[in-house]
């Protein structure tokens, strides 16, 4: 029983580390793209965040597959990630276009919150690789 527990914890930790690597890399890319498009180039929050999220969406999917983080279930990924993309676009629209904040800080806060919630959601819908629950 103890060996099974340690093995399970080790696998979960390894899986979370791979998920975090992809998340960290693409978080930096996402923040940089939103900052560049919105603050530097002057695009509206909705447009800059939409473009940034589209780039993020494609790059992250292939990195997840490459590092064997998620199951290759494209439509499940589209559904799950789409929810969080809408969350990011709505949040950036409110923060930048309605409240008048610069994109830098809201993008950090919203991206971090989205990352945590997405990991939990991916786990819940069994999109994470090796996420077989013992019932």
Can you describe this structure?
This protein is an all-alpha fold. 79% of the residues lie in helices and 0% in strands. It has four helices and no strands. It has helices spanning 2-40, 45-66, 74-98, 104-124. Helix 1 (2-40) runs antiparallel to helix 2 (45-66) and helix 3 packs antiparallel against helix 4. It is elongated, with a radius of gyration of 16 Å. The model has no long low-confidence stretch (mean pLDDT 84).
Secondary structure elements and their pairing?
Elements: H1 2-40, H2 45-66, H3 74-98, H4 104-124
Helix pairs in contact: 1-2, 1-4, 2-3, 3-4
What is the overall silhouette?
Answer: elongated
Largest β-sheet summary: none
Number of strands: 0
How helix-rich are the residues, as a percent range? over 70%
Give the topology string: H per helix, E per strand. Answer: HHHH
Q: β content, as a range?
A: under 5%
Number of helices: 4
What is the CA-atom radius of gyration, in angstroms? 16 Å
For the record, give the distance between the C-alpha atoms at the N and C termini, rounded to a whole number: 16 Å
Poorly predicted segments = none
How would you state the average pLDDT, rounded? 84
Structural class: mainly alpha
């Amino acid at each position: 029983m103890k060996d099974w527990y340690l093995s399970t914890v080790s696998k979960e930790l390894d899986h979370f580390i791979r998920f975090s690597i992809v998340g960290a890399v693409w978080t930096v890319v996402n923040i940089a793209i939103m900052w560049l498009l919105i603050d530097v180039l002057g695009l509206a929050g909705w447009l800059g965040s939409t473009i940034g999220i589209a780039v993020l969406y494609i790059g992250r999917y292939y990195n997840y597959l490459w590092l064997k983080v998620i199951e290759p279930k494209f439509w499940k990924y589209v559904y799950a990630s789409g929810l969080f993309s809408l969350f990011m676009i709505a949040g950036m629209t409110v923060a930048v276009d309605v409240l008048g904040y610069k994109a830098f800080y809201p993008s950090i806060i919203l991206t971090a919150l989205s990352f945590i919630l997405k990991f939990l959601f991916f786990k819940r819908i069994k999109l994470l690789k090796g996420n077989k629950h013992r019932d």
